[in-house]
Amino acid sequence: MKMRVAVLFLLALLSGCSVSAANRAELAREQKQEKEKLARANTPGALYGEGFHIEWRTPQIQHPDQPQRLFTASASSASVTMKEKNLIFDLKQAHGTIYKKNAPAYAFTAGMVYADRAAASVKAENGVYFTSVGKSPAIQVSAERAYWNHARNILVAEGNVHAQYQKNGQTFRPFSTKMTYHFDTGQLDY
């Protein structure tokens, strides 16, 4: 029996059945993420869960009883922390909508999304795809990361940025390391 185990072990070794550097790195990354997830879940005032959906609304001056919808997102998993009366959302494998005048205006997907209510901003990374909804002309942007600032009403995309939009009947497909999209005017700076 011992001989059989030794032979099987030797065969496994000879056939290259070892853990590669890439596999070790992936395992270390997963262990680190799991450790961070546990730390967030154990933080006082924090929530962690699977299948999150959030809606971000703000009061309207003209109709205080009818809050204006700004942003909705769904995620495969998420954590929520409270910092000095501010909610901060970390959303993994997220998709959602940015609203303009309470109507869906832009849809997005991203590997990771961080929403900070006090800063009125959303940061997305790990592959961001953003497209206008029901607009003509349409705009589509893909990038490594993007930042949306509600107060300034802009989207800044960075890292391997590709866009497609129409202007005066022509289709443009710019590529850059950084682009800024102005929601109010529809202007794209690159």
Describe the structure.
β2 and β3 (86-100) form a beta hairpin. It is flat and about 55 Å long. The chain is an alpha+beta fold and 190 residues long. The protein has helices at 2-14, 21-41, and strands at 47-58, 68-83, 86-100, 103-116, 121-132, 139-149, 154-167, 170-172, 175-182, 188-189. It has a single domain (46-189), classed as Lipopolysaccharide (LPS) transport protein A like domain (lipopolysaccharide transport protein A fold, Sandwich), CATH 2.60.450. It has two helices and ten strands. Strands 1, 2, 3, 4, 5, 6, 7, 8, 9 and 10 form a ten-stranded antiparallel β-sheet that branches. The model is unreliable at 5-17 (pLDDT under 50).
Number of domains: 1
CATH architectural designation: Sandwich
Multimer state = single chain
Q: Estimate the mean pLDDT confidence.
A: 79
Query: What is the overall silhouette?
Result: flat
The proportion of strand residues reads: over 45%
Number of strands: 10
Total helices: the number is: 2
CATH class: Mainly Beta
Which segments are poorly predicted (pLDDT under 50) over 5 or more consecutive residues?
5-17
**Which structural class do you get from the secondary structure elements?**
alpha+beta
Q: In whole angstroms, how far apart are the ends? A: 69 Å
CATH topology: lipopolysaccharide transport protein A fold
The major pleated sheet works out as: 10 strands, antiparallel
**Rounded Rg:** 22 Å
Helix content: 10-25%
- Please name the fourth-level CATH homologous superfamily: Lipopolysaccharide (LPS) transport protein A like domain
